[in-house]
Amino acid sequence: MPENDLLSLVQERLNYFNVKVAHVHTETALEPDYGNQIEQLSFLHPKIIEALRNKGINKLYKFQEESVRKILGGKNLLIISGTGTGKTEAFLIPALQFALEGRRSVLVYPTKALARDQLKRIGEFSKEIDVKVGVFDGDTSEKEREKMYSDPPDILITNPDMIHVGLSLSYRFRSLVRGAELFVFDEVHTYEGVLGAHVRMIVDRLRDFGDIQVVGSSGTMDASPYLFPELFGVEGEIVKGTLRRRGIAIHALLDIGSASRWTISAYLASILIKEGLKVLVFTDSQQMAELIAKISSRFGAEVFVHRAGIRKEERKTVEEGIREGKIKGIAATSTLELGIDIGDLDAVILAQNPPNFAKYLQRAGRAGRRNKPGYIFTLLGSDPIDSYYLRRPKEFFERKLTPLAFDTSNLEVVKIHAAAYLLEKGRIRTQSLPSLWLRAFRELEREKIVIINGETILPTQKLIWFVKRSHIRSTGPIITIYDQDGKVVGERELPVGLYDIYPQAVYLISRHNYVVQSMDIDKLKAIVKRVNDDIDFYTKPIYSSHLMSLEEIEERKVYGLPVKYGAVTIMEVIEGYAIYELVGRKDRPKKEVYYDEPITFTYETKGLLIKHPILPEFNEIDAMEAFHATEHVLISAARVTAGAGLTDLSGISYPSGHVVIYDSVVGGSGVTKLLFERLEDAYMIAKDITENCDCEDGCPKCIYSPFCGNNNKVLSRRKSFRLIKTVTENRIDEKCDNLSGRPIA
Known about the structure:
Helix content: 25-40%
Low-confidence stretches: none
Largest sheet: 7 strands, mixed
Number of strands: 29
Radius of gyration: 26 Å
Number of helices: 23
Shape: globular
Strand content: 25-35%
Mean pLDDT: 89
Structural class: alpha/beta
CATH topology of the domain at 34-240: Rossmann fold
Distance between the termini: 49 Å
C-alpha cells in the first residue's frame, strides 16, 4: 500500500479515539561513502578478498576500510555507524585475517540470543576461508565444550555473562578466552547503567589489569574521547560511518491525548495486521506488553508477547513464528531491540516515547529492513515530555544522541567481580589492586566471604556460593514468583519489583491474570494465584520513600541552588495499593487500600540533593505543592538531558525545600551523575513544561507522574513554574540547611 494511503487509513481509523497523526517525518536512504576497490587493499589476505568478491562486495565503505586498517594495526577502536551499514564486516574482516595468521578472537554480544543469531551470518563468511567459529554460552552442550577446549575455534562467540562465570569457575574456559588477542564488543550502546559497570569490570578481569586489544561497535550512540577508557579501561580511537540507517522509513508521531496507550497500541496493531503488515509493538514495561497483547484480541488480532521473565521456549516460538510469517504481531520489551533475526517487519509501534534517542533509532531500525520501506508510529500522550515534543515535533528528530550513562564506582558491582577474580586466582596480594577493588574486598571481608590476612586476600567457603548466585544484569535481590502449585512462573529484581509484586497486586504473565497472594521480602518469595482473565481493573502501589543518609561526592551551585551528588541510602515503604479502571480515568483511582503492616526495603544507590528556597508568597501547602511538582518535572526533563528511562530515576520532596532524585537500582546506574552535570538544562526544560501547559493547575501533560507514590496529590503546576522561574532568572543564593518534614515520593 502506498505511504499516503496507509497513513490516511490509520488516521481515519484512529479518529474513533480522537487520535491524530501530528507529524510525519520521512527518512530516505543514506549510503556511506565508498573506499578503494578490494583488489587495492594489499594488506588483506587473498582468501578474504576472494570471499568478499564472492559475496558481491567489490569495495568497502570508507569507514570499514579505515576500521580494518586500524584494527589490523593493533589499535583499540570504537566503530559507530547506522543500522544496516556494515559494522559487522568492519570488525569481522580483521578477526578473519587474524585467524588466517594463527591469532584468535572473541566476539562478545550483549545477549545469548543475539550471539546465537549472529553465528549463521559469521559462519557463512568463515567457512569459505576455512576459519573455525564456535559459540560458547549456557546452552552449549558438554560435547561441544570439550571439542572447543581441545581444538579452540579461531573466533569464539559469547556473551558477558558467560565470560563472568567462566573466568571464575572453569580453568579450561579461562585458557580458551585468555588465549585470544582481540576482543570485540558489539552493540555497545546496550552497555549502560548497571550492565555497563559490569562490562568494565569484566574487561578489567580479561586484561588482568594489563593490556588487550579491544574493539567496540554500535549504530546508535554518541561517544566522547572519554567513553573508551571509562568502559574498557584502555585508550581507544573512534571511527564513524553514517550515523543513520540505510533504507526508507516513514516516522509518524501520534497525538493520543488522554487516551490509553495500551488500548491505542493494541488497536493500531490490529489495524496494521488486518492490512497484512507484520508489526512489532515496543513498550518499556513487561506488564504493558502483556496488556497490549491481551487487548489486541478484543480488536480481532492475535499479538504475542516477547519479554524477559517468560520461558525461553516461548520466546523462541515467537521469534520463529514472526520470522516464518505464522505470527503477524508481537508486543515486546527491549528483548527485541537488538538485531535478533525475526525477518522483515513492516511496522514498529512505540507505545511509549523511548527513554533516549539512541533507543528510538534502535527500535525504529527494526522496520523496513532489506530494502523495504518501514513505518514507525510513536504514541505521544499526556505526559510532560510527550507534550514538549508535540509542541516541537521537528526537535524530536533532531535530538543529539546522549552518551552512555554507567557508574564504574558502583560498589555492589565491583564486589561481584572482586569475588570472582579471587575465585579465579585463589589468592591475591592487596598491593596489586586498584583502590576501589580493595574497598570492595574490605566489604566482602565484613560479610565473611573473604579473609584479608596482612597483604594477602584469601577465600572462605562462602566465596563460591556468592559468585554462583551473582548476576551481571542486576545488582538488587531477586524475588522469585511461584504459583499455588509451587511452580516458578517469574522473577523480579528489587527495588523495582516492589512496584509490581505486592499483596493483592494484579500481575500479568503470558497474557493471563494473576493476583499476588503473599510476598515475603526476607525470603525473596512471592506466591500468585491465577484468576479470571476478564478482570476490568489494574493496581498500582501506594508508597513513600525516605532519604536515610547521603555521603557527598561532589557539590556545586546550579542557578544559585546548592546541589550535592553522592551515595545515598533509601528506604522504600509500600503502604498499600490503588485500584484503577482498565478503561476509564487514569489520573484518579476508584479505590485505595492500605496495609496494616507496610512492606519496607532499604538499599544504597547514587543520588543528588537540591535545596530550593521557600518563596515569601508561599504558605506551607503552597511550598510543598511547588517542590513536589518540581521533583516530578525535573525527573521528566532528565529523559531529554540525561537519556533517563521511565523508571531509571525516583524522587522525594521535603517541606524544607529539599528535593532528592536518585538512581532506581542498587548501587547506582550513572544517570543521576549525568543529570547532576546537566541540571541547568533540565531546569530550562522544566520551565518550558510548566509554563506552556494549558491545564488549570496540573495534569498528565505537565506534572503528573505514573509512578508517583501518593497518586499525584499535593501538586501545583503554577507554583512549580513560579519557583523555577524565580530560581532560573534571579539566581537566589540559597543555603543548604538540613532537610525536615514529612517527605512525599
